[in-house]
Specification:
Layout: H1 3-18, H2 22-36, H3 42-60, H4 68-91, H5 98-108, H6 114-126, H7 130-146, H8 152-163, H9 169-185, H10 189-198, H11 204-220, H12 229-239, H13 244-258, H14 261-287, H15 303-310, H16 313-327, H17 333-336, H18 371-380, H19 387-398, H20 402-410, H21 414-451, H22 475-478, H23 481-493, H24 497-508, H25 515-527, H26 531-544, H27 549-561, H28 565-578, H29 583-595, H30 599-612, H31 620-629, H32 633-643, H33 650-662, H34 666-679, H35 684-693, H36 695-700, H37 707-720
Helix pairs in contact: 1-2, 1-4, 2-3, 2-4, 3-4, 5-7, 6-7, 7-9, 8-9, 8-10, 9-10, 9-11, 10-11, 10-12, 11-21, 13-21, 13-23, 14-15, 18-20, 18-21, 23-24, 24-25, 25-26, 26-27, 27-28, 28-29, 29-30, 30-31, 31-32, 32-33, 33-34
């Protein structure tokens, strides 16, 4: 069998198991065994089949077996495990992916037990052999993430590393990431138990990483986890710890925020940086660097320089990005995206390594106590930089010649260092230590799944919804109204309307009298294009609170979109009573009358808007068209003249042409029709299609329908310059 055939067969088997189609899973597993000639489990599968048939036969006879659920669960778990084992056995010898390549490397080496690796790790750290400690930690990482199912002995040995309070948190953190990465490829109950153990530790760095990893694995195996009562019991115990619900909620929000990273990166590359480049010459001219004498410089900066930035659209965007950074958004991704090619990042474990300036790879490049070392320490202490980016920063600085590096670092004085320290303290106060650590680790994960050279060998968890609040396993702990509302509001604020809608609908099941909830359901549906659904929700909200101006206007807008102008008018008039001087509503009322062919009534409202807002242009188009339809052609012509001087579109030129034709000004009509065609695509047939839709209105204006083809031919000749 080919690699693709093996993967497809495995996915088919686990798919059947996920939907509890056990017979189909057995049949597919038999086919995989025959196709691969791996007959080691043939007898076991046949034994499972017989047990299952016996159980079903017993059930069909109406008998109740108290052991049935236990037997069924055991069959499902065992079948999953056999499928995992066969897949790994078949793919390990030849699959080119990183995971199986590393498994082959591990199998080619003399086997070193987890106990021995732990001992070596402890010894090397104790004697201060940093290089050997880091090497051993890398070996431990690779062995964990590519290992087969853990034995009880493996579990005990790896747990010693997690429980060791003397080892630095780099050890426990690397173990957690290796467990998570290994579980992503092959589920292992013992590895999952270790993650849950780590999520209960007192060490914040390890605990938070472990909790994030637990949530990811619960999501990836949402159909499989419920089979393991022991895991659910451990999760129950973990959930009893103070702050568990808040922690899960915070992690969920951080993953929602991670979805913004690509948008932020694109905006930086497509908007911010190009705008800065355009602004740069302007700033240079204002500052006139060539004429500056350092000895004449005072303490004050020219406020005009700042005004150049603040008055530009760049200033507003920079302010927006500053707010995003304060919120914890990943604004640094684009900065360091090209600094991940250093040899350090070829080792997979280094993508998950907590940052330490004492790493042996830096050797003595940055002398202790030096200005550059102090400055780098201040920068890497900043909460808005993840561990991976901090390593990138150091490596980037190492590439510079020492003289240039010192000169660059010399630009940062003690005041700048204090500002960074203050920024870090403000972040901790505002967001809390938990959120900062969680945010940094999620950003580390993001960089790995997006930028690791062989990242395509790994399922990108950031391409998944990761809606932890919707998991049956987690629902008991994060289904409280506060959590769901917070998550929904965050989705809404980030314009993830479908995700928000799912939660709002869930909340509405028990909050049928909450008008604000139905307002938000309506808004989400409207933004998703479900206008009828939005209208139903808005109408329900209106029943609960008939004084909401926002809802009344939304209902009117939905009716207009659904081409129900009469119903829309009812609600616009309700809104008009509350806000009689709202010009936008007045023009909407005019449009409704226009759609109802009540042209004189439409003109009344449009003229009112034009009178109250003489500098505005909103009323011009409906006034011009209604004037045409009511035979007031001179009035229509005057308004189209004004319209055509203010960013006209194809329809404006077309309507102006109709008006000239109605006034018997054929040359004027031809002129505007030509403009109409050229202002759009220049496609005559597209213009003609639009033109033909207006024939009934032209007939009402006194134009014979037989004249239409003559006018169109006249236009064709004119456009081809062949009319003599």
């Amino acid at each position: 069998m080919t690699i693709q055939e093996i993967k497809k067969a495995y996915n088919r088997i686990t798919g059947f198991l996920d939907t509890r189609e056990l017979k189909n899973a057995f049949d597919s597993l038999q086919s995989l065994i025959v196709g691969s000639r791996e007959y080691l489990f043939q007898d076991k599968i046949e034994e499972f089949q017989e047990t299952y048939k016996y159980m079903l036969r017993y059930r069909s006879e109406g008998a109740k077996d108290p052991m049935q659920e236990q037997i069924y669960t055991h069959l499902l778990i065992s079948t999953y495990e056999i499928a995992d084992w066969i897949r790994n056995r078949l793919l390990t010898p030849e699959a080119p992916s990183t995971y199986y390549s590393q498994r082959r490397i591990q199998q080619s080496k003399p086997d070193i037990s987890f106990e021995k690796l732990y001992t070596d790790l402890y010894t090397n750290y104790d004697i201060g052999n940093e290089v050997q400690y880091e090497w051993t930690l890398g070996q431990l990482f690779n062995k964990i993430w590519t290992s087969d199912i853990f034995t009880t002995e493996d579990y005990v040995s790896v747990k010693k590393v997690l429980d060791d309070d003397i080892l630095p948190n780099t050890a426990g953190s690397q173990v957690v990431s290796a467990l998570m990465l290994g579980l992503q490829f092959t589920f292992d109950k013992e590895k999952m138990k270790l993650l849950l153990d780590a999520a209960a530790l007192s060490n914040e760095e390890i605990r938070i990483r472990a909790l994030i990893s637990v949530l990811i694995i619960l999501y990836l195996y949402k159909k499989r986890i419920p089979l393991y009562k022991e895991i659910e019991n451990r999760l129950d115990n973990l959930a009893e710890k103070p702050g568990f619900t808040n922690d899960v909620r915070t992690i969920t929000l951080r993953f929602i925020l991670a979805r913004e990273t690509e948008k932020i990166t694109r905006r930086l590359q497509d908007e911010i940086i190009p705008e800065m480049m355009k602004l740069s010459p302007k700033i240079s001219r204002k500052i006139n660097l060539s004429n500056i004498n350092p000895e004449q410089l005072g303490d004050e900066m020219n406020p005009e320089w700042q005004n150049i930035i603040s008055d530009s659209s760049l200033g507003k965007k920079m302010e927006e990005f500053s707010e995003l950074q304060q919120e914890g958004a990943d604004v640094m991704h684009s900065t360091f995206i090209h600094l991940k090619s250093f040899p350090f990042f070829r080792e997979i474990n280094n993508w998950f390594l907590p940052f330490t300036a004492d790493h042996s790879i830096f050797s003595n490049t940055f002398r202790q106590g030096s200005n550059e070392k102090r400055m780098l320490d201040s920068m890497t202490g900043a909460g808005f930089m993840c561990n991976s980016d901090k390593y990138s920063l150091y490596f980037g600085m190492m590439q510079l010649p020492e003289q240039h590096r010192k000169m660059m670092m010399g630009q940062f004085d003690s005041q700048a260092s204090e500002m960074l320290q203050q920024n870090q303290e403000e972040l901790i106060t505002k967001r809390g230590k938990f959120e900062i650590i969680a945010g940094q680790y999620i950003q580390d994960l993001y960089r790995f799944y997006k930028l690791y050279p062989a990242h395509l060998d790994f399922e990108d968890i950031f391409s998944l919804p990761l809606d932890f609040h919707n998991l049956d396993t987690l629902s008991p702990y994060i289904s409280d109204e506060e959590s769901l509302t917070t998550i929904a509001e965050y989705h809404l604020r980030k314009n993830y309307f479908q995700d928000a809608l799912v939660i709002y609908n869930r909340l509405a099941e028990t909050n049928k009298d909450n008008e604000v909830l139905f307002q938000k359901i309506g808004y989400c549906k409207q933004m998703l294009g479900d206008i009828k659904g939005a209208l139903a929700a808005y109408l329900h909200a209106d029943l609960l609170d008939s004084k909401s101006e926002w809802v009344i206007r939304k209902i009117a807008g939905c009716y207009r979109t659904l081409k129900m102008p009469e119903e829309a008018l009812t609600y616009y008039h309700r809104y008009e009573q509350l806000n009689p001087d709202n010009l936008s509503v007045q023009i909407s009322i005019g449009h409704c009358h226009l759609e109802l062919k009540e042209y004189n009534e439409a003109l009344k409202y449009c003229f009112k808007v034009d009178y109250l807002d003489p500098k505005g242009t909103k009323a011009w188009r409906p006034i011009a068209w209604c004037s045409f339809l009511t035979g007031k052609y001179d009035q229509a012509k005057n308004y189209y003249h004004k319209i055509l001087e203010n960013n006209p579109n194809m329809q404006d030129y077309l309507n102006a042409g109709h008006t000239e034709w109605a006034l018997q000004n054929i040359q004027g009509a031809i002129h505007y029709y030509s403009q109409a065609m050229r202002s759009d695509t220049g496609d005559f047939y597209k213009f003609q299609e639009q033109f033909m839709q207006d024939i009934p209105d032209l007939v009402v204006a006194g134009i014979e329908e037989t004249e239409v083809p003559l006018m169109l031919d006249l236009l064709r000749y004119t456009l081809s310059n062949t009319l003599q």
